[in-house]
Amino acid sequence: MVDTRVAPFHAVFCAGYVPSNGGHILHLQLFLQMRIRNPPRPSPDAPIIIYLPHDLSVQGYKQTSHNTLNTLALSAHATVVEIQYRLSAKEPYPRPIHDVLAAYDWIRKHLSSNPHSHKDPPSPLTRKRLGVCGELAGGSLAAMLALTECTPTGITAAALGNPIVDWTSPIQHPISTDSLSSLNQDLKSLHTNSFAKPEHRYDPFASPLLFFRTPALELPPPPSLYGIPSSPPEPTSQTGDEIEDTSQSIPKRRSHRKYPPIGSGLRLPSTQILVGDDFVMKDQVMEFAELLQRSVKLHEEESERKTERVGIVETEGVGLWGEKEVMEVGGWMGERLRG
Question: Between 283 and 224, where is the model more confident?
Fold first, then answer.
């Protein structure tokens, strides 16, 4: 039987300074909830998989998180922790980023240390191996966590399903079947309502593709002040690398960025990316996979890569995870986290 625990936790982190006599720190309190699944007879060094769910409610596409956690725990023989991050029109970005990073710190402090180790601080050999997985918005947050926390004692494996890795690009609705129209509309609503300010879309923590290249669209100009219209932007020429103009953003030439930075101590994790042929954002997912592969080759010698570091799996249909896909993801993560 799979051990089930509900683990609410209270996270407090510094939000900034409040101007006052001498100044003091304003603490922002976050009340988050996590659900934890342990496999049957877990070993003391069993790895930990962080699961970040999507929040779509389209009938026929929603895999319940309860089933997902059980399947991941059994197939990976790992402890699975679901972070119930907040994302809505009332709690837009960067709220889910803050939630996930606060929860990750809690997991490292309370769950990832091997209870049989007495070393302080824990070394890579005395910490449990950590992985992360998720799809859609959860895949975006999983990519963010994997790219920014891939230290020797941090994230070493990531599985991403149809991750939304570039919120700056508009969703182009293709001609789709009736079975996909509801899903595309749900994604369109998610894309529209997840950001209160346009500039938040351009943060690489929200759009992880931007760790590897510059945005394809300029940040829209701020609203006019006192009723005076903003100056129109300079006209730009269209090239093959640019995206079609929109009413709010101006195309610009893309250029590569080097990531991770030299001397950062980060090493890109083993990553498996699953994408559906009919997924409306497939192009950005494929570009992300290619740039991730490029970065691995630039930063590491071939002799250092014992296994394929970045795998791409293209599936028929939209490619959202059902029980079969979750089982395959769990098997892959269990193998990588023990490798």
Answer: 283
Do 99 and 83 touch, CB atoms closer than 8 A?
yes
Which tokens go with 163? Answer: 């991750």
| Under 8 Å between Cβ of 204 and 211 | yes
Residue 91: closest CA among 30, 142, 182, 149: 30
Q: What tokens appear for 253 in the block?
A: 């030439």
CB 47 within 8 A of CB 337: yes
CA separation for the pair 319, 274 (Å, rounded): 7
CA distance 336 to 329: 11
For the chain, the farthest-separated pair of C-alpha atoms sits apart, in whole angstroms, at 67
| Other Cβ atoms closer than 10 A to 193 | 13
The tens digit of pLDDT for each residue in 45-103 reads: 899 999 999 866 544 444 566 789 999 999 999 999 999 999 999 999 999 999 999 99
Q: Is the dihedral of CA 299, 165, 147, 78 positive or negative?
A: negative
Q: Using CA atoms, how far apart are residues 281 and 173, in angstroms rounded to an integer?
A: 10
Report the pLDDT value the prediction gives residue 308, as an integer from 0 to 100.
Answer: 79
Residue 30, classified by CB atoms within 10 Å of its CB into exposed (0-12), middle (13-18) or buried (19+), is middle
Return the ∠ at Cα 197 (arms to 191 and 199), rounded to 5°: 95
pLDDT tens across 196-255, in order?
A: 999 999 999 999 999 999 998 888 776 554 444 444 444 444 443 333 334 456 677 789
φ, ψ of residue 264 to 5 degrees: the values are -80, -20
Tokens of 248: 């709010």
pTM of the model: 0.82
